[in-house]
Amino acid sequence: MLLELESVSPDEVPNSVNTHSRRLFHVKPDDWTWWAWAFTTALLIVGLSGYSLAFVGAMLMTAGQGFIMLGRDRSPAAFSVQLRVAYLLLLLIGYPPPMRWLYWLPTVGPFGLIVFGYCLLARMLSLLPWNSRENYTLDRLRRTFLSAPDPDRVSANPAAAGCAGGLCTIEAQVAPRVPLAR
Predict the structure, then answer these.
(1) Is the pLDDT of residue 145 over 60?
(2) What's the average model confidence in pLDDT over 121-129?
(3) Are 27 and 114 in contact (CB under 8 A)?
(4) Distance between CA 133 and CA 181 in Å, rounded?
(5) Which of 49, 100, 110, 177 lies at a CB distance of 3.0 to 4.6 Å from 41, suitable for a disulfide?
(6) What is the pTM of this model?
(7) CA–CA dist 90, 155 (Å, integer)
(8) Confidence band, pLDDT 50/70/90 cuts, at residue 60
């Protein structure tokens, strides 16, 4: 049985998963947080290669980022701080030797961020009730996990434009809801 797929232009897709940014790679060497995540990822790769002290380095790097974000945003409820705290908790959970296999997840996650701009942890945190007042719907879940990262959404929203990391913001990760046409 042969399956034929119809090619559809992104402009013809009438849903909120369609974004403005068409970039596949989101390498941002001019952003210090990009370098911090890249260094953290490198430390985790070294740790997975057998040098367990690198896991401690990754935790210190993440904690350092968290303190910088807390000082800048002046609130532990700031999304940038929540992201670093959640990531640090993942690293702490995986630190005991029997749990080290879990380090593959926090290694692959930031790799996806520094190369493709996709931050699964930011998307998951966006679903927490204190980060959004939007109802839980299938459309929201689809937009949360399937929309392409788009840093243009951050620059279009001046309130979010100051968020560190650019791509590690809810605005850059999750496509906005598109009102239904009537």
Answers:
(1) yes
(2) 87
(3) yes
(4) 22
(5) 110
(6) 0.75
(7) 30
(8) very high
